[in-house]
Amino acid sequence: MIGRSVVFRTRSWAVLGVVLGLLGTASQAALAAECPGHPGALGTSRTLVVDPREHPRIGTMQYRETLPLKDHEVVLTFDDGPLPKYSNQVLQILADECIKATFFIIGQQAKANPEGVRKLVAAGHTVATHSMDHPLTFDRMPAEKFEPEINGGIQWTSAAMTDPTKLAPFFRIPGLMRAEGVENYLISRGIQVWSADFPADDWRHVSSDRVYQLAIQRLEAKGKGILLLHDIQPRTVAALPKIIRDLKAKGYRIVHVVPATADQPATPTTAVEWLLHPPTETTPIARWPAVPTFVFTETKSLPAPSLADLNAEAAHQPLLPRRTRAQMDVASTLAAPGRDLFAIPEGSVEVLLSTTLSRRAATRLAMAAETPQAAKGKAAKSRAPRTAHAAHGTLKHAAQAKGTTPRPTRIATGVKKRA
Ligand SMILES: [Zn+2]
């Protein structure tokens, strides 16, 4: 039985393999049929129709959202053309592979080479705009400057087209120098702001091999996304066939993006598909910080610490408040005051102050009750703040008890130095 089951399963897998193989061949054949004369072409796997108003900013290089691509799906974009010398070569490479891309046109280029714009449209690519003069100051331009830049690009690119309605309401800010005001203006006009998911640094002075490596490495790191290239660079022309070769070898598929129209509604998508890595059932859990593995003792509670545990008798007593030297000095040098010192004579200012009388009235009454000499001294003291009065009074009384002259200044200095 077991043996028969194994044989059966083996045959099932073999059949499945054949079916999958046939399906693979069929899809290849379908692509080849779409790309006559180029049997090994990468082709364009699907067309994604987007409504710019629903997702106005895209490209994870700068924004939260990007195109709703599936794993291993790539959107090719080319900026700054058309420049016949290189743009025509890029067009030919893409035509040989039946790849549809998106081109962000500079108004000045369209003005100088309107035929280049028409070629792009005729080849079925999406044509969008990239400003009039490509200034790299969109992040600090006032509206009166960026609006003519945006509109000039749109005007000259659409002017180059036989059918201006073919112009896609997509815009890429030159140098990706984004600014809130620029984005809001574009969005208010129903234009989608396109950043990218990864560049290949083909505008820098690097080799074509480096461009190819960066394109593939960065794509592999994200698994899908919008690739930013420039069809005016010789290194891009040289790198593109190698990029396409690797895309084929690694199983990537090209997606062509077009804007929604009255005849062609947007491809149905869910909000999370516009995130590069939509959360799955496992990712939210996987992203929580790891819980540390505490080792708990078997006892349910720990015993309360004793004073010995605090090391209270040792030289270091960090937990106990320390007596200052000043306190110790006062205690050792001053004699204990006699009990009679605390007896308040009747009619004195302290007693009178405890009534509702004002300090001045109380002092006057106290002075009247005492001898003129004593009253004079007490009145002077009563003008001092209460705390100072109390402190000086104590010192004076103590000094009188010892028969010496009080020297509050020296003690105060001593306290200050040792604090
Ligand atoms: Zn550019």
From TrEMBL:
InterPro entries assigned: Glyco_hydro/deAcase_b/a-brl (IPR011330), NODB_dom (IPR002509), Polysacc_deacetylase_ArnD (IPR050248)
Keywords: Hydrolase, Metal-binding, Signal
Region (Disordered): 368-419
GO-annotated cellular components: membrane
Residue intervals of the NodB homology domain: 72-255
Signal sequence coordinates: 1-32
Pfam families given in the database record: Polysacc_deac_1
UniProt-listed CDD domains: CE4_NodB_like_6s_7s
Molecular function via GO: hydrolase activity, acting on carbon-nitrogen (but not peptide) bonds; metal ion binding
Gene Ontology BP term (one): carbohydrate metabolic process
Domain of life: Bacteria
Entry annotated with the keyword Iron-sulfur: no
Its biological purpose: Is involved in generating a small heat-stable compound (Nod), an acylated oligomer of N-acetylglucosamine, that stimulates mitosis in various plant protoplasts.
Family as reported in the entry's similarity comment: Belongs to the polysaccharide deacetylase family.
PANTHER family: CHITIN DEACETYLASE 1-RELATED (PTHR10587:SF133), GLYCOSYL TRANSFERASE-RELATED (PTHR10587)
Protein name (record): Chitooligosaccharide deacetylase
Organism, as annotated: Bradyrhizobium arachidis
